[in-house]
Amino acid sequence: MKKINYYYFVAGFLAILFSITHELNGQQVLLPALYTGELDITTVTTFKYIWHIITAENFVFGIMFIIMAFYKKQEQLGFTAWLICVILLIRLFVIVITTLMMGGKMDNLGIDIIAIIVYTTIILLGTRAGNRIKVNG
After folding, report:
1. Which residues of 86-121 are buried (b: 16+ CB within 10 A; e: fewer)?
2. How far is CA 90 from the centre of its chain?
3. Could you tell me which of 86, 76, 75, 80 has the C-alpha nearest to residue 65?
4. Please, are residues 16 and 62 in contact by the beta-carbon 8 Å criterion?
5. How many other β-carbons are positioned within 10 Å of the β-carbon of residue 58?
6. Secondary structure element (H or E) that encloses residue 64, with its range
7. Cα 129 to Cα 137: distance, rounded to the nearest angstrom
8. Terminal Cα distance for the chain, rounded
9. Residue 10 near residue 125, CB atoms below 8 Å
10. In the predicted structure, residue 21 carries a pLDDT above the cut 60
11. How many Å apart are CA 37 and CA 85, to the nearest integer?
12. Which DSSP state fits 109?
């Protein structure tokens, strides 16, 4: 019997989807706004590479979770899943605190907050599923 951790599979799919939407949003909306002439080239470059790092990180997480979904020894994956959840929650914490400190509105972050909470919940459910998920084949 093959074991497939559907929680990890869904988490991987979501991470790749988040990566694609993050990149598209950046290319179409945010990054062009950097070239209005008000920012120096160092600031623009820094913003661009940080944006692309987050996109790449999401993509790597997605590939990792899809691979983890088919890994035979699911009980060995808990630490990796928890570590990724911690990274995601720290990322969210930094975004929220920075937004508040800069006087930004939290209503702009609503979708991001919900997405990260749902995403980490799916990952943590995957750690609990462990060996119980089996598929004939």
Report:
1. eebeeebeeeeeeeeeeeeeeeebeeeeebbeebbe
2. 11
3. 80
4. yes
5. 21
6. helix 41-69
7. 19
8. 6
9. no
10. yes
11. 38
12. G
CA–CA dist 66, 45 (Å, integer): 32
Give the pLDDT confidence score for residue 13 in this predicted structure.
97
Token pair 């691979």 in the structure block, residue: 67
Determine phi and psi for 4, rounding to 5 degrees: -130, 125
Three-class SS state of 70: coil
The pTM of this model reads 0.83
Altogether, the residues listed in the chain come to a count of 137
**67: which 2 tokens?**
């691979």
Distance between CA atoms of 125 and 11, rounded to whole angstroms?
A: 10
